[in-house]
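INTERNAL AUDIT FORM
Audit reference: QA-55
Scope: verify that the stored structure record matches its stored sequence.
Auditor: D.O.
Record contents follow.
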Amino acid sequence: MIDNCIEIRVRYADTDQMKVAYYSQYLIWFECGRTELLREIGYPYSRLEAEGIILPVIEAWCQYHKPARYDEVLTVRTTLPN
């Protein structure tokens, strides 16, 4: 299994009026994790595109357990099974 963790600080622009991260922002953070995992294994998007490889996301969902709030640091963990 390949495992990658990145830290992301919740920006003011990521939040709603209650200073809680807007629900769709989580998917953007997930994409940041996916991008960094690919870069770590030597396949940044630029290389994949140059080789004619595309990786479309065909399904995405999440279950929210706790709100992310303005200025908190989050850890995004991305894993790729063997």
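Auditor finding: record pair retrieved intact. The first strand starts at residue 2 and ends at 9.
Action required: none
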